[in-house]
Amino acid sequence: MLKLLKRLWFIMKSPSSAAMGFILLIGFLGGVIFWGGFNTGMEATNTEEFCAGCHAPIVKEIQETIHYANRSGVRAICSDCHVPHNWTDKIVRKVQASKELVAFAMGTINTEEKFQARRGYLANREWHRMKENDSQECRNCHQFEYMDFSEQGARSVKQHSTALASGDKTCVDCHKGIAHNLPDMTGVEGW
Predict the structure, then answer these.
(1) Number of folded domains in the chain?
(2) Does 186 map to a domain?
(3) How far is Cα 92 from Cα 121, in angstroms, rounded to an integer?
């Protein structure tokens, strides 16, 4: 064993193609391990269980909506609506969400009472984000091009066709209470 280590040390200290190959191999393996760990962490933070750690009342509330239980059996979880699906936007959102973890750890929203007191502000911030990105997360599942207006009620057809024609409306403009109960917006700036 000692002889093998001495041989390895000799290869590594002398500039040779074997040393360069070894360094490249270590770098490649390190990259694979980092990437695997990074993706595992990203996926772990996209689960309902993770979200419920800070937002338990909201996760419970969602269970009463069409996004949780419906005739088709398709269920949306928190990350489907609050984390963009394409990679670059997902990374940006995860960095933004790290601020929320710090706020929870500092005790800003660590009880249901504190959370409810800040809920209007948090909802308004989320609606603004979704308005800015044209409700990208909604459009991962719902797109005007694939809507069957003949299956919708008259009011929905009117609203959807007007929004489609004008191009200035996005899902969150009309559907602010579709998956959550609307919070008390008293005192929330911009509301």
Answers:
(1) 1
(2) no
(3) 21
Among candidate residues 140, 16, 120, 76, the one with its CA nearest the CA of residue 171: 140
Q: Which residue has the tokens 């772990």?
A: 44
This prediction's pTM: 0.72
- Establish if 26 belongs to a structural domain: no
Residues 93-149: pLDDT tens digits? 888 888 888 888 888 887 888 888 888 988 998 899 888 888 888 888 888 778 888
Give the burial class of 117: count Cβ atoms within 10 A of its Cβ; 0-12 exposed, 13-18 middle, 19 or more buried: middle
Q: What is the DSSP string of 60-110?
A: HHHTTSTTTS-TT-----HHHHHS-SSHHHHHHHHHHHHHHHHHHHTTSS-
How many Cβ atoms sit within 10 Å of the Cβ of residue 133?
16
Residues 6+ apart with CB under 8 A from 58: 51, 78, 180
Q: Which residues in the chain show pLDDT less than 70? A: 12, 14-18, 190-191
Is 23 inside a domain boundary? no
Mean pLDDT computed over every residue of the chain: 85
Cα-trace Rg, the chain: 24
Do the domain assignments include residue 4? no
- Provide the domain limits for residue 94: 41-174
